[in-house]
Amino acid sequence: MLKIKNLQAYYGESIILKNIDLNVQEGRIVCLLGRNGVGKSTFLKSIMGMVCTPHGSICLENKELINEPTYTRARSGIGYVPQGRDIFPQMTVAENLRLGLEINNGIGKISPKIYELFPVLKEMLTRKGGNLSGGQQQQLAIARALVSHPKLLILDEPTEGIQPSIIQDIGKVILLLKKEGYTILIVEQYLEFILNIADDYYVMDKGEIIAQGLVSKMDKEEIQHKIAI
């Protein structure tokens, strides 16, 4: 579904990503692992057109996106949940969710399935986003991305700053989404979380992919060493 080839990304004159190749097959969960500061979030921002990518290819279902603006990439079917969640604290949960419809020019309705996946949100529709816990905000951010029914869901550090019980809930939701046919790309540092949900993994260091493979055949100790802080 998503094919990245020879991707380079820059901040100013500094190269951050160096000829990245990465594939996400339809219906699979792919994880990009790595320490802080190695370029993982920059990679996701590159997919979304938020940083300078003068060289390489980003194809979604054989459609080249490398020169397309962010809104076109989103409308092509990419749902993106950034690190830090970026929900609107002064807006209610319901208002935050409705923003997910803006990808389709505000057309459509929020599926009841959203509240089946995240029942806590149904109880808090009138509560402001800033009054939610970190875990609840993360659930809201994922739900907002799902409102537009994306072909590809991208999650940047979904477990960051989240209590263990909510991490388990998010993991269950991700597996349910896979059963429903969603394709998911996750950036993560929490290896135990990935072992329970992902099909394929890549490891990044200093802007380069240094390892990849099937999670089922992963050498856990070796990968943990590569991503240890």
Outline the secondary-structure elements:
Layout: E1 2-11, E2 14-24, E3 29-33, H1 40-47, E4 52-60, E5 63-64, H2 70-75, E6 78-81, H3 93-99, H4 112-117, H5 119-122, H6 134-146, E7 152-156, H7 164-179, E8 183-188, H8 191-197, E9 200-205, E10 208-214, H9 220-227
Parallel strand pairs: 3-8, 3-9, 6-7, 7-8
Antiparallel strand pairs: 1-2, 1-4, 4-5, 9-10
Helix pairs in contact: 3-6
Would you give an account of this structure?
The chain is of the alpha/beta class and 229 residues long. It has a single domain, classed as Rossmann fold (3-Layer(aba) Sandwich). Helix content is 33%, strand content 28%. It contains 9 helices and 10 strands. It has helices at 40-47, 70-75, 93-99, 112-117, 119-122, 134-146, 164-179, 191-197, 220-227; strands spanning 2-11, 14-24, 29-33, 52-60, 63-64, 78-81, 152-156, 183-188, 200-205, 208-214. The strands form 2 sheets. The chain has a 6-stranded mixed β-sheet with strand order 6-7-8-3-9-10, with helices on both faces. It has a 4-stranded antiparallel β-sheet with strand order 2-1-4-5, with helices on one face. β1 (2-11) and β2 (14-24) form a beta hairpin. α3 runs parallel beside α6 (134-146). The longest helix has 16 residues, at 164-179. The model has no long low-confidence stretch (mean pLDDT 94).
